[in-house]
Amino acid sequence: MNEEREDELVRAVQAGRLEDFEELIHQHASRLRAFVAMRLPVAHLIDEIAHETFVFAYHHIDDFEAGTDFGKWLRAIAFNLVRQETLRHSRMTKHQKRYLEHCLIQSADKTEFKPDDPVIVYLEECIDALPDGQRTLLRMKYRLSQTSKEMSRALDQSDAWVRTTLCRVRSALRECVEAKAQAASTAAQS
User: Fold this and answer.
1) Alpha-carbon distance 150 to 145, whole Å?
2) Which of 96, 101, 125, 148 could form a disulfide linkage to 162, CB 3.0–4.6 angstroms apart?
3) What mean pLDDT, rounded, does the chain reach?
4) Roughly what angle, to the nearest 10 degrees, separates helices 43-59 and 18-39?
5) 66 secondary structure, DSSP code
6) In the structure, what pLDDT confidence band is assigned to residue 109 with cuts at 50, 70 and 90?
7) Which long-range contacts does 86-95 make (Cβ < 8 Å, 24+ apart)?
């Protein structure tokens, strides 16, 4: 699409003609999706972010200065939406990690939880399914309250190995607990 035609369409949309925005979407959709995909390679989020970008652009079309690069403006909007999604995902992962650590610590002292608390039951089942070495790491960290340096010395491993392995074990436990909770929820709905 040439710049002159694009400027015409933008001015028409700014004047209130929605059908002209459809042509702008058609002209920019594939490039915008590719831009998003390079920064956020999650299939369902690519379409979602592209859609949100066009919705935002339509609602803020009066803020766009006709004569400038519309595609660049769309990419800037998409970039900000990708950044927001990445930050949201990061916050959610941190909260889940903290909750899992809280459950691990509380499961060490079961007097504070009901024995039939489903999260604790799932967590204990998941911990029991871990290999011995990973259970040993968890015991050292959460029951003995050892630091990663103390654990690395006791296991003759590097401090980085201990931290990385604990991170992987916590992630595996989180996925295991979520899978068990999902399975229980599905079974309850049946």
Assistant:
1) 10
2) 148
3) 85
4) 140
5) B
6) low
7) 86/40
- More confident of the two residues 29 and 142: 29
Q: Which residues contact 103 (CB under 8 A, 6 or more apart)?
A: 119, 120, 123, 177
Residue carrying the six token digits 């920019």: 28
DSSP 8-state symbol, 153: H
Q: What is the structure's pLDDT at 41?
A: 72
- Average pLDDT of 7-22? 87
The C-alpha atoms of residue 94 and residue 106 are separated, in whole angstroms, by 18
State the virtual CA torsion across 74, 77, 80, 84 in degrees, nearest 10: -110
Domains of the chain listed by start with CATH number? 3-90 (1.10.1740.10), 109-189 (1.10.10.10)
Which single residue is written with the structure tokens 């909007």? 77
119, 103 Cβ separation under 8 angstroms: yes
| Separation of alpha carbons 78 and 56, rounded Å | 9
